[in-house]
Automatic annotation (TrEMBL):
Organism encoding this protein: Heliornis fulica
A GO CC term attached to the entry: axonemal dynein complex
Protein name, per record: DYH5 protein
Coiled-coil region: none
GO MF terms, alphabetically ordered: dynein intermediate chain binding; dynein light intermediate chain binding
Record-annotated Dynein heavy chain tail domain positions: 4-166
Pfam family, one: DHC_N1
GO biological process: microtubule-based movement
Stored InterPro entries: DHC (IPR026983), Dynein_heavy_tail (IPR013594)
Lineage, opening ranks: Eukaryota, Metazoa, Chordata, Craniata, Vertebrata
Superkingdom assignment: Eukaryota
Length: 168
């Protein structure tokens, strides 16, 4: 009877974790002119969420319940372990993407504050850094992720030039 109650609790957790994972994989709705800083903020928020979830999963309360279910040879543990692995992957992806995007963070400020002429001085090293991310990141090296990043960088350059022209 205790095992059944604990399995019900774990099944609720599984359902909630699945929901978090599904929501994290859905398409992001963003404004058309959003800049690259938003990309960094998105991944920082996602990293924080998944790290909090991992902390909760590793809490002593959860470990005790899982230990009891392991002794009882509960079938819910197979599903739990799979989701635990998926959360770890999602947390690692977010952490890795934040680390790589921080390499671009200096450029984001330069792009926002520079004149069109001085902005061009930074473009070669910016593109070299983007290339480095593409070639070394295990998660950020997809055409979808790179297209999104380059679009946001371009948006920032356009917004900076627009501001320059309207204020000049």
């Amino acid at each position: 009877e205790v095992t059944e109650k604990l399995e019900e609790v774990v099944m609720i957790w599984i359902k909630q974790i699945r929901q978090v994972l599904v929501e994290s994989e859905q398409m992001r709705r963003e404004a058309d002119d959003i800049g690259p800083t938003a990309e960094l903020e998105y991944w920082k928020t996602r990293m924080s969420s998944f790290n909090s979830l991992l902390d909760e999963i590793k809490s002593s309360r959860v470990k005790k319940i899982l230990s009891i279910l392991q002794v009882a040879r509960s079938k819910t543990l197979k599903e739990w372990k799979e989701l635990d692995g998926n959360i770890t992957i999602a947390a690692n992806e977010a952490k890795d993407n934040v680390r790589y995007l921080y390499a671009l963070d200096n450029f984001f400020g330069l792009l926002a504050k520079a004149s069109p002429v001085s902005m061009m001085e930074h473009v070669p090293s910016l593109m070299n850094t983007v290339c480095m991310i593409y070639t070394t990141s295990p998660y950020y090296n997809t055409s979808e992720r790179m297209t999104s990043l380059l679009l946001k960088i371009t948006n920032q350059m356009i917004n900076t030039c627009r501001t320059y022209l309207c204020e000049g």
